Amino acid sequence: MAIPCSNKKKYYLHMKEQDIQAIQQLLATPKKIAIIPHRSPDGDAMGSTLGLYHFLLKNNQHPVVISPNEFPEFLAWMPGSDAVKIFEKDKKNCTKILEEAELIFTLDFNALHRVGEMENVLNKLKAPFVMIDHHQSPDDYAAVTYSDTSFGSTCEMLYNFISFLGKKSDIDKTIGTCIYTGILTDSGSFRFPKTTGTTHRIIADLIDLGVENTEIPTLLFDNSSYGRLQLLGRALQNMKILTDKKTAYTTLTQDELDTFDHIKGDTEGIVNYGLSIKGIVFTAIFIENKDEKIIKISFRSQGDFDVNQFARSYFNGGGHRNAAGGKSEVSMEETVSKFENLVSKLKI
User: Fold this and answer.
1) How many CB atoms neighbour CB 326 within 10 A?
2) Smallest Cα–Cα separation from 49: which of 79, 20, 88?
3) Which residues partner with 144 through β-bridges?
4) Which residue numbers in the chain have pLDDT < 70?
5) Contact call for residues 265 and 255 (beta carbons, < 8 A)
6) Percent of the chain that is helix, strand, coil (3-state, to 5)
7) Structure pTM?
8) What digits encode the pLDDT tens for the residues 286-324?
9) What pLDDT sits at residue 14?
10) What is the dihedral angle through the alpha carbons of 101, 104, 105, 109, rounded to the nearest 10 degrees?
């Protein structure tokens, strides 16, 4: 199926005709619909869920976005964010909404463990699931799965998903703002390898709809608190370089987070600074979370080094070839020691 662009060119994407028809049938009548991003949602997770939320509202559905936990403050300006339910803050009400839902959409993740404690509720639901996601190795829990790792963001997939349903004209400034946000953030401001000509044609369409392409980056990236800048400074001070392995990493302890009044989202993007160093192709950040008793880890790479495989093999995580995450349940010192030992054996 082809989706026409504003410049009258056509590009071809993959979603099975039978799945398109199944979605159209599911949405043929009004339904109670739950829309779920992954735990600790980023710009793509919130952009895709809120974009779908506004689309479903426009089509006489009854959607509710339920996030497993709080989303970062720098995303709180997004249209519809004030209507998002937070499972960790209101488990009883959110569980009721999920149990009464007639359809469940999961966006920007492909394994139910990515929602944390909410997984226990989702596993018991009888309603059909629809997955829209761009990560590797999707689990088999959804009645309809739209999964494609060639995309740089779930928001780009959502644009196509709406178009596949014959509803491209429903994409307005509000929906477009959500989609633009996810594409912008997950593409590294259009710098990552999966940013294609098609990505830019979609962005052009969204700008033509009135999406504020100069204002959104300011809202996302230029509203730092003084504490957030100090935290960045500390992370840069903590950075270590393993020159012969073309690797950089940094750490942030819970005490350091507390010293600079850390709030959710303050560490977003810090991991990317390692890749700005000449000659570095692999970088990581280790962030202590004493409440959850884990070290949260983010990995980034350039070129052919597969951080998804590295995260899956050694740190109970996963993601994409050049961007992945993981966790460790031992101390910061033990985690870093393990990482350095693994890196010493890599051929980068």
Assistant:
1) 25
2) 79
3) 130
4) 1-13
5) no
6) 45, 20, 35
7) 0.86
8) 999 999 899 999 999 999 999 999 999 999 988 888 989
9) 74
10) 130
